[in-house]
Amino acid sequence: MKLESFLLEILVCPQCRAALTEGGTEEQPELVCTGADCGLAYPVREGIPVLLVDEARRPA
């Protein structure tokens, strides 16, 4: 998965408003919050980021 750079510049974590970075694997891509106290990982399904806190994976 490769999101457009302009999209990554404007997307923020809905929980804490920190920037998001690409992460996960090719089979299960994610957008990961860069906030030190948050760290939620949001799934990307069929190229579309699902920015719902209820759908996010909590950091381990």
From TrEMBL:
It comes from the Bacteria. InterPro entries: Trm112-like. Pfam families: Trm112p (PF03966). Gene3D superfamilies: 2.20.25.10. HAMAP family: UPF0434. Belongs to the UPF0434 family. This is UPF0434 protein GCM10010502_71690. The lineage of its organism: Bacteria, Bacillati, Actinomycetota, Actinomycetes, Kitasatosporales.
